[in-house]
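User: Hi! I have a protein structure encoded as tokens and I'd like to know what sequence might fold into it. I'm fairly new to this, so please keep things simple.
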């Protein structure tokens, strides 16, 4: 605990792996690194650890050599080896020692059989099933003939063998208080959660149950894959993980303090509902074997897999790629160097630390917990909805102006340059800048926003709004030309200043100005992805000001502004005409708002659009197809049995043959 770590001092403060820090602080020892006074003389001075109290430092006799341990060489932890070790030398001793810690099953394989307790696996299973984090420690005294320089060149495999097992470090793997509420919030929003960890698989299952990632009545199926041997093909053994050994529960461990926590409990695996709600749990070794020998099962494993334990960094990245290949949008949280590859591969990588992981991930959380995940989802969905809203607004902005100009071209007129400038600079630019400032809605709903600009609902929204714009502009124009006081324009060739100052241009300019404001309001949707429009105070204020300014231009424009914009004054005494135009604009607002609020996102529209698709249309996402396939096979997976690669291949070939026969026997197909 005092020597086997990778801690170092940075600006006088101890830094390193959080677990190593916890263990070292528990020893109440001191760590001293070589300073400038030694390094400038090229002296080989190791990092030293020693007790911090006088009684332990000098042992029983103050005249004896102080009790100091120098860390001669360090073999860093790697996920592939699942261990780390250090070579140390105690001051006053002739030989050096090797201390090693890591995954219990890995350390046990490196230890002498006679040093291993008989109940090792029983004790290990007891604590891992209760959710404790277990680390094994071992030791070996090196030969006194091995010199300092030889240790620096020797390979770690030559040292990490024939170790003496010392014991197990049991640490309570308590959940952070923010974890469980976040997991429940994500599940309520139909966001799937998957655990990818380097811990023991039984520990991971316990944590998954405690945090709600796996339901209390859901079955967990262990997927144990065995590699191909000379006379045996690769095979997968399926078995339930939630079986408690009563003998283990009744035993008590001598010399240990039991910590009460949530442990495994029995479930009725024969229940039909439980069979449908199952989760796969597998380790990195099984993951590699399945990828190599059972690639056809990978989609099913990824769709129903919830717990992936003892995963190496490259395996985490491979899992993310498999999930993305099935159509999932994958977010990844990590706080260590082992997570960098997966964080970079994921669609949204979130680093929970300021260390190595923050370099690889696009997002870095200031809070070292998963509480940031709902925030990223909410902000991402709000940004997506805002982008679609701005896109539709800019598309309709062009259409509104196109329709106005097209109508005026038929009579030889057009909008003036300053009217174009007012529309582009004052109205459109202001709206486009402030439209996206609406904050994200505080809650998360299960329905996801549309992810494609060419989706059926988006296209329906744009096309229907275009038709409404054309209808109301034509309505305003027809209403104008039927007025008794209306004098049609008689355009003069090569006199643009005269041709733009007419009743038609002025009327359509005012109506189109209202239409820009109307569509900006309708496309600024609120819940469930963004807050209400009035929460965006600058945007709401701009809409009110622009509406008031346009109304002023319609009813009583200031002569200087009217002449500046080259508008033609409507004869006095025709207030009814102006009020009717306001009524036309108000009708346009209610029709456009009704389309966006009650039609575009309605279930009725979805059913109507589905009618245009061919019957039996399959989902676009592959994971939905896999889910449908699994629902049709209630007897899969074959729990408490073994699936070999050869038998699986035969079944698949038989399935293809049967399918071909069915197609041939049915001429209609």
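Assistant: Happy to help. Inverse folding works backwards from shape to sequence: for each of the 669 positions I chose a residue that suits the local structure. Here it is:
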């Amino acid at each position: 605990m005092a020597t086997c770590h990778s801690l170092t001092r940075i600006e006088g403060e101890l830094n390193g792996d959080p677990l190593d820090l916890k263990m070292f602080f528990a020893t109440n020892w001191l760590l001293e690194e070589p300073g400038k006074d030694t390094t400038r003389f090229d002296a080989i001075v190791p990092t030293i650890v020693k007790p911090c109290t006088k009684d332990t430092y000098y042992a029983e006799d103050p005249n004896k050599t102080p009790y100091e341990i120098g860390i001669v060489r360090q073999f860093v932890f790697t996920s592939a080896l699942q261990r780390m070790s250090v070579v140390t030398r105690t001051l006053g001793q002739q030989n050096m020692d090797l201390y090693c810690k890591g995954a219990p099953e890995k350390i046990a394989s490196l230890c002498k059989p006679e040093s291993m307790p008989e109940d090792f696996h029983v004790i290990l299973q007891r604590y891992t099933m209760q959710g404790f984090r277990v680390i094994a420690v071992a030791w070996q005294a090196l030969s006194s003939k091995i010199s300092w320089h030889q240790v620096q060149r020797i390979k770690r495999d030559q040292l990490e063998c024939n170790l003496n097992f010392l014991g197990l470090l049991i640490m309570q793997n308590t959940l952070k208080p923010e974890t469980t509420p976040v997991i429940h919030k994500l599940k309520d929003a139909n966001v799937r959660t998957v655990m990818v960890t380097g811990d023991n698989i039984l520990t991971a299952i316990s944590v998954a149950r405690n945090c709600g990632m796996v339901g209390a009545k859901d079955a967990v199926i262990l997927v144990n894959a065995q590699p191909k041997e000379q006379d045996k093909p690769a095979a997968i053994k399926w078995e339930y993980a939630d079986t408690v050994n009563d003998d283990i529960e009744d035993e008590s461990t001598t010399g240990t303090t039991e910590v009460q926590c949530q442990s495994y409990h029995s479930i009725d695996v024969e229940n039909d509902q439980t069979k449908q709600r199952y989760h796969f749990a597998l380790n990195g070794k099984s993951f590699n074997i399945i990828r190599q020998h059972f690639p056809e099962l990978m989609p099913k494993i990824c769709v129903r897999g919830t717990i992936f334990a003892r995963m190496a960094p490259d395996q985490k990245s491979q899992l993310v790629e498999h999930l993305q290949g099935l159509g999932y949008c994958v977010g990844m949280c990590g706080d260590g160097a082992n997570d960098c590859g997966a964080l970079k591969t994921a669609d949204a990588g979130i680093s929970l630390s300021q260390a190595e992981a923050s370099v690889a991930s696009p997002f870095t959380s200031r809070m070292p917990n998963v509480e940031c995940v709902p925030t990223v989802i909410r902000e991402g969905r709000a940004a997506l909805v805002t982008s679609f809203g701005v896109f539709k607004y800019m598309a309709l902005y062009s259409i509104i102006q196109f329709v106005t100009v097209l109508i005026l071209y038929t009579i030889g007129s057009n909008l003036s340059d300053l009217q174009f400038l007012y529309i582009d600079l004052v109205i459109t630019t202001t709206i486009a800048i402030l439209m996206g400032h609406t904050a994200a809605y505080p809650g998360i709903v299960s329905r996801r926003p549309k992810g494609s600009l060419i989706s059926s609902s988006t296209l329906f929204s744009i096309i229907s709004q275009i038709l409404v714009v054309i209808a109301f502009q034509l309505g305003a124009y027809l209403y104008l030309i039927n007025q008794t006081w209306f004098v049609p324009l008689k355009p003069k060739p090569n006199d643009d200043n005269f041709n733009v100052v007419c009743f038609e241009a002025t009327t359509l300019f005012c109506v189109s100005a209202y239409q820009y404001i109307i569509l900006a309001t309708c496309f600024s949707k609120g819940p469930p992805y963004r807050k209400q429009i009035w929460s965006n105070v600058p945007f709401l204020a701009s809409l009110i000001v622009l509406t008031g300014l346009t109304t002023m231009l319609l009813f009583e424009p200031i002569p200087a502004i009217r002449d500046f914009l080259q508008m033609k004054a409507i004869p006095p005494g025709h207030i009814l005409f102006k009020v009717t135009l306001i009524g036309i604009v108000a009708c346009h607002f209610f029709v456009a708002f009704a389309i966006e609020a009650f039609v575009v996102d309605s279930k009725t529209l979805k059913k109507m659009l589905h009618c245009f698709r061919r019957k039996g249309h399959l989902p676009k996402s592959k994971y939905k197809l896999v889910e449908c396939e699994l629902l049709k096979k209630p007897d899969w997976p074959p729990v408490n049995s073994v699936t070999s690669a050869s038998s699986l291949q035969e079944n698949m070939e038989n399935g293809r043959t049967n399918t071909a026969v069915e197609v041939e026997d049915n001429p209609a197909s």
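A useful reference point when you look it over: Residues 372-409 form the longest helix (38 residues). Feel free to ask if any position seems puzzling.
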